[in-house]
Amino acid sequence: MAGLCAEPSGTGPDLLSCLAGLRAFRGATVVLKFGGNAMVDRELKESFARSAVLLRYAGLHPVVVHGGGPQIDAHLGRLGVRAPFAGGLRVTTPEVVDEVRMVLAGRVQRELVGLINAHGPFAVGLTGEDAGTLAAVKRWGRADGRPVDLGLVGEVAEVRTGLLASLLADGRIPVVSSIAPAADRSDGAVYNVNADTAAAAVAGALGARALLMLTDVPGLYRSWPPQGGPIERLTAEELARMLPDLAGGMVPKMAACLAALRAGVGEVRVLDGRVPDAVLRAFGPAAPGTRVVRDPVAGAGAGVSAEPGAGAGVSAEPGADPVAVLAAR
Ligand SMILES: Nc1ncnc2c1ncn2[C@@H]1O[C@H](COP(=O)(O)OP(=O)(O)O)[C@@H](O)[C@H]1O
Ligand SMILES: CC(=O)N[C@@H](CCC(=O)OP(=O)(O)O)C(=O)O
């Protein structure tokens, strides 16, 4: 595990403060969404894998949901297949969904499983198809206020947590690719689900305490192209007001953040995954990125996430261990 928190350059996160933050999350499920844009090079992917393993050693239950948009683009480009985006979602024909599944489950997921398992037999890869973990219905896009037919793009209709819960109870790290069978199983169709959408659905269903979204920007900016720094903190309600003005990949990402919070996830953080040890830094006192928290409950004093005094890192919430609860079902 050398090099995880103390980099030779001395620029890494401080191990002690990270461990203090992690201790507050013992027993909690944390979903790590690793976006394709953050998978810049092998070193960053290794750093991500080490962080996931460290979280597990620290007693957390990490679940990885990965993307692979740029990797799919490159593959489709080699095949000479065009698959444009509308509102941040890829228009997906039956031919395209086969290639998306191949790249996500056959390439990106396999690499992440291998990198995590270099540290021990922890990672188990799956798609939403395995044990019927995800079920999807057709998702429509919008452009210029009009509905757009995105083809085989899915919205998660259901998460069956059984397989994930038993893997977590067994100390494994599930690595989930965002492919899901049709909820009605009518014709064996599978849907291409945006990975942020899948991560939020999984986080909500598992009762995750935090969802960390690793992407290729330091956080959410008020306007794009950016002026000034990213937003440090906002509430679900503030995010809901911003949503109609967002563009590109931030549309499904921030809609997913909101869905996760509304499903009960303690907080969501959008992080720059191109920074080494981004996951670990999120638990430190100088945590980077944009933190989105649930709206304060009227009359309940502080919000659900421990706010003041909790430091900048992802904040812990007391409560039942969701893995134990789910495994007991
Ligand atoms: N307001 C915004 N703040 C930050 N990034 C934005 C914003 N609007 C659009 N973007 C774009 O969203 C991208 C991240 O979304 P996406 O490409 O889907 O990433 P990922 O592959 O990590 O899911 C950024 O690279 C940036 O170009
Ligand atoms: C419907 C849709 O757009 N699906 C995405 C799935 C991968 C993904 O979401 O990857 P990132 O997290 O790297 O963006 C796609 O086809 O690119």
TrEMBL record:
It catalyses: N-acetyl-L-glutamate + ATP = N-acetyl-L-glutamyl 5-phosphate + ADP. Pfam families: AA_kinase (PF00696). Substrate binds at G68, G69, R90, N192. Its main location: cytoplasm. One of its GO terms (molecular function) is acetylglutamate kinase activity. Its EC number is 2.7.2.8. Keywords: Amino-acid biosynthesis, Arginine biosynthesis, ATP-binding, Cytoplasm, Kinase, Nucleotide-binding, Transferase. Belongs to the acetylglutamate kinase family. ArgB subfamily. This is Acetylglutamate kinase. It comes from the Bacteria. Pathway: Amino-acid biosynthesis; L-arginine biosynthesis; N(2)-acetyl-L-ornithine from L-glutamate: step 2/4. HAMAP family: ArgB. Residues 29-272 form the Aspartate/glutamate/uridylate kinase domain. Transmembrane segments: none annotated. It comes from Kitasatospora phosalacinea. It is found in: Cytoplasm. Catalyzes the ATP-dependent phosphorylation of N-acetyl-L-glutamate. The record marks K33, K253 as: Transition state stabilizer.
